[in-house]
Write a structure and sequence with these properties.
single chain; 256 residues; Alpha-Beta Plaits; alpha+beta; 4-stranded antiparallel beta sheet; 3 domains; 45% helix; Arc Repressor Mutant, subunit A
Length: 256
């Protein structure tokens, strides 16, 4: 039995995913470098470079990104951070953070993804002003001693914490973000990632299979877009329904 086409397709998918990771890290570094290109004077740039290195981004990619952000690469367009907001089927609110050097390319792509799966893109503030809070999100390696971790959290201004995908996520208000992060680092905890982003105030329960499938496909398309850095949503979908959707999607994939 010939298995090469399936294996090759998976390798191509993995290569594309890795390429996007490198692209997004380069854009994040370029954005941070706009303020100051010296990592000793720019903690945001230092953090961006540190995170990129952990994901295997090479030194030459990092160097080019810093030069781009600092305006030393005259042939490269400036990177912009743009948020797109709207709804998925069933009333689920969605915010997309894009990093782009061409908003005339990115905006139509975002609008198409929203509409292709039964949603609609709204104006700035159409969901962020009431459906989400803008907060600090700090992801840590799972603590081995929860009692000690809870004591450390009490010494900071963190608002909340919880487990997500096997890691500890700490939420702060946007003003306390840096001080909480510094306090956790000082206490010896390993920070996997940290960012200012959106947290849903309330969640929208999705029980319909078709709506859950459309949300799945919409999020999949956003993830595949080279300009999309992060997506937040208010969908509350049970593990059982999500597993049904994943099984259905997998069954429809072409196999050789």
């Amino acid at each position: 039995m010939w298995r090469w086409p399936t294996v090759a397709a998976q390798k191509d998918k993995n290569a594309k995913a890795k390429a996007k990771v490198f692209t997004i890290h380069a854009k994040l570094i370029a954005l941070a470098a706009e303020k100051w290109a010296d990592v000793n004077l720019n903690t945001a740039l230092a953090d961006a470079i540190h995170t990129a290195k952990k994901d295997g981004v090479t030194a030459d990619v990092i160097d080019r990104a810093v030069k781009r952000g600092a305006g030393l690469d005259k042939e490269s367009a400036k990177i912009e951070e743009i948020f797109y907001e709207g709804y998925a089927p069933g009333g689920t609110a969605i915010i997309v953070r894009a990093l782009t050097d061409n908003r005339n390319r990115t905006a139509p792509n975002m609008r198409h993804i929203f509409s292709a799966f039964g949603g609609n893109m709204g104006e700035t503030g159409s969901v962020s002003n009431f459906a989400f809070d803008y907060v600090g999100l700090i992801t840590l390696e799972m603590p081995t001693d929860m009692d000690a971790f809870e004591m450390a959290i009490l010494d900071t201004d963190a608002q909340d914490y919880g487990v997500e995908d096997g890691q500890m996520v700490v939420k702060t208000d946007k003003h306390s973000f840096l001080s909480v992060k510094a306090g956790l680092e000082k206490a010896g905890y390993t920070i996997v990632s940290s960012t200012l982003g959106y947290s849903a105030k309330n969640y929208t329960e999705v029980t319909d299979f078709d709506n859950a499938l459309k949300i799945y496909k919409m999020l999949e398309e956003f993830d595949a877009d080279e300009d999309v850095e992060n997506v937040w949503n208010t969908a509350d979908i049970s593990d059982t329904l999500w597993a049904e959707v994943e099984t259905f999607v997998e069954s429809k994939k072409f196999r050789t």
